[in-house]
Structure formats: structure tokens, C-alpha cells
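User: C-alpha cells for this one?
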Amino acid sequence: MQLQYKIISFPGKLDALIRDFIAANDDDFYPTIASRRDLSDFVQSVYQAKGRYVICFDGEKIAGLTSVYLDHPSFITYYHYIAIDKNYRGKGISTTLYNYVHEICKEYGVQWAIVKTWSTNQVSQAMFKKHGFFHLYTIEDDRSKGVHTYFYAKSFSADPFGRPVSCIAMVGNNSYALGNFTKTISSIPRICSMANGSLPFFVVNNFTDSEVKAVLGNNVSHVLFLGGKPSFYEGDSKIELIHLNNITKKLVEERKKKWLLVGDLSGMFCEPLVINNLLRPAQREQERISEIATEIRTGKVSPAYYRNEIAAMASSGGHEGIVLGSPELHTMFNFDKMFNGVEIFDPWLELAILVQNNRMNFKLS
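Assistant:
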């Protein structure tokens, strides 16, 4: 047995072989793929999403294959499919296939990717964790009663933190921003193989200097200031300051697009945010965004209620992406990276993913 690996980018003579392999291994999926869609269409969907197949061959026979979407309509990058022939399992093929996909993602400047499985598939869950994915969210009863869909994420961005993240103090005068971010990062399951427990939080709203001093004395590893820093804080050698604006600037500039800044940044960034190709809306649109933010902040509607309007605002102006500069708009697009053809950059979500990636201690090779 001499295994060889090939990367396939375009439809061709191998498509029928790929379809037959998927059909032969379809019983391993729940529910089966064939019960959800035509297998030939399933094969073509990878090419349509600017994706890649990575195939392991033993001679002319497929021993295993995986595929990745590079233009998924919601996640941008989505690890689409993986299966190993029953006669070739336990030989490290899945690890090699995924390593190829990881390299493809790095080559294309992917910031983070999504993969999903079902709650009773412990083999896949273990493999995802081995490859640096962490459990991002769950759709309960999605496959059937009691069988949930688990979504996992993997970050490819360089870790912005100088030290391990063990405890974050969140300090600010915007209760909505603090509450919404705490909800996001708390809802991401934080179970990890190193058994280092849950991520503690300290939240200080409408702070005074004495309150902040007290919080920062409680084994805090990092501090995130919102709406300005206390006058006494000049940095602490034992506590690392999270610069949300710096993280946003770096990650947004990596995506070479024409971005629309939605929101006035109040209570969100401690310092001015200056990003290449980041434009602010017209005055009329700014006023409308302010109205939307007020309605969300006062609890009249959920952020998702206005996502169609916000996305249309960007696309009508010829913008390819949105930076959610108002904390009230955080979670508007859930965990999606694309919506109606517009790329979404939610600084709070990006920070939560980077924090969890650091916590899981998966270092990029």
C-alpha cells in the first residue's frame, strides 16, 4: 500500500469516483447525505463554493477524502466533508487530509473556519479538538429529537496575546457592551483537553479607580477597558491590556475589501480606529444607525431584527464588508461571517474566538 494525496480544484473525470465513494460511506453520516440532497449536486457544491477536495489514493482507489468551502455563503470557510474507507481507518489518513486543508486555509489568508458534526459522533468531536477546533455553538434537536448539531471553530489568526488568557477583567461604562460580550464568550463552551476549567470574568460597570484597583488585584491576566481607561492605569507588568482597536485594525486590513463602519464606536474603542479602506456612512445613514442602536440598547428589539437593513446599507453603497462599530450591533449576525453577500466583522465575536483559541492552547505551526 502506497498512499498518495491530491488536491482537486475543478470538476472533471474524478467527480463520478468521488460521488461513488461518498455513496459507499454515506451510512456513516446522520442523517445520510443522500437523504438530504442529490449526491452529484453535493459533489459539485464544493467547486461552486470555490472549494477544494483533498483525496487520499491507494493506487486508483480512494482511501479517504475531505473537502473545504472557501466561499461559503455564511461562514466563508467551512470544512465541508471528511470520510475514510472502512479498510483504511486507523492509519492517520484523516490527520493528513486535515493538515492539507489547514495549509490551504493559511495560503488563502483564512481567519477562522467552521466545521460541524452531530452530538453523538464522538469520533469526529475528538478529531476536531485534536486539530485545534473548539465547540462554538449548538443547534439542539437539529438532526432528530435529542441529537444536536455541534459547530466547531478554528482560528488561523496569529495569537495577539503575549501570555495565556486565564482571567479577563472587563471594565467600562457601557452596561450593554459589557453584558453582551460577557454573554457571547460565556456561551461558547470552554471545556478543553487540558482540563484548565472555566474562564473567570470580572465585570466592573460605571467604574471608579478604587473599584478597578480592587478588581485588578484578583489574579487577572488581561484587562479590557471600554469607554476609556482609569486615570491611574498605565499598564501593569502582570496584567496585559487587550487593545480591541488594534486587533480590529489588523484583522480587517488583512481582508482587503472596501469596508463600511457601522456605528460611532462610542464605548467600544479606547483610541481612534484608523483602518485603510474603512469608510463611514453618510450623515443620514449615521442617524439611522443611531436610531437602531438605541432601540436595541433599550430592549425594544433584538440586534438580528435589523440585520437585513444594515447589510443592504453596505451593499447599496458598494461596500464589500461591514465593521460593527457599535456594541449594540454585536450578535446581529450571530456567528455568520457573510450575510447576503456582505462580509461581517464583529470585533466582539473575533475577540471571543481569539480568547478561546488562546485558552485551548493550540499553537499555529
